[in-house]
Amino acid sequence: MIDFIKKNIRCKVFGNPINHSLSPMIHGLFSEQTGIKYNYSKKLVPVNNFKETLLDFFCSKKSNYGLNITVPFKNKAFYLCNKLTDRALASGSVNVIQRISFNSNEILGDNTDGIGLLYDLKRLNFIKSDSLILLLGVGDTSNNIIIPLLNFGCSIYVFNRTEFKIKSFVLKYKKYGKIFIFDPSLNNNFDLVINATSSSMNNVVPCFPKNIKFNFNSCCYDVFYSSHNTPFLDFCVVLGIKKFSDGLGMLVSQAAYSFYNWFGFLPDINSIINIVVKNIKNN
Prior knowledge:
The chain is 37% helix and 22% strand. The chain is of the alpha/beta class and 283 residues long. The chain folds into two domains: 10-111 and 249-281, Leucine Dehydrogenase, chain A, domain 1 (Rossmann fold, 3-Layer(aba) Sandwich), CATH 3.40.50; 114-246, Rossmann fold. The strands form two sheets. It has a six-stranded mixed β-sheet with strand order 2-1-3-5-6-4, with helices on both faces. A six-stranded parallel β-sheet has the order 9-8-7-10-11-12, with helices on both faces. It starts with 9 loop residues before the first strand and ends with a helix.
């Protein structure tokens, strides 16, 4: 554990675009709640200058300690870390980096998206270890979140508009748990549908299997967040779903696990989620 006393710790979030990022507000709440003082800000990184910007951050000042990485740099960050956690290795993507030692420029990469999602699904009572889940999409987001869901014991069926991508995705994660290609002939009643496509960012409804069946307690979750219902969640309402949520709780939760990586202490996630939701949904 690094001694943070009397050190002006600096952490940032790198992304492009970045103006919309709620990370500085969330980490400000973590700092206020825990009493751990650190400077957290956001930085717009040129798409073609990510490597140089990252290396400069860790080499220029010893107080530069941690980074969060967001779109479109998570895969690039994976290849720039000296060490990687098992979660990062499995997903091929990194959303949190930390300096291993203030006397070294070695950096450790991790991916907290999946455990952040799982935490939020548990908080909402949307998931159980035997849940039957339909996952929409096989892109970067799905790669980031799939393993914690499989490790939890869920059975996951994957649907994607491009079929040939599904086979490689399912084969890649088969060793981690019960994952299958969606088959409409199986007549499954899904407990949870997760939209991991980029559809909500583009303000459209994702490609959705026809004649999908739900049960009375079925839930829908969009990993994207908004001040109002996403197109996917509006579509779920039309289908008669009563329990649904966007990914604002996931955003706070993955940030909390980033904080834990850096400082060895997990904030009270639920109370911070309540504050963030109130600020975003009521403005």
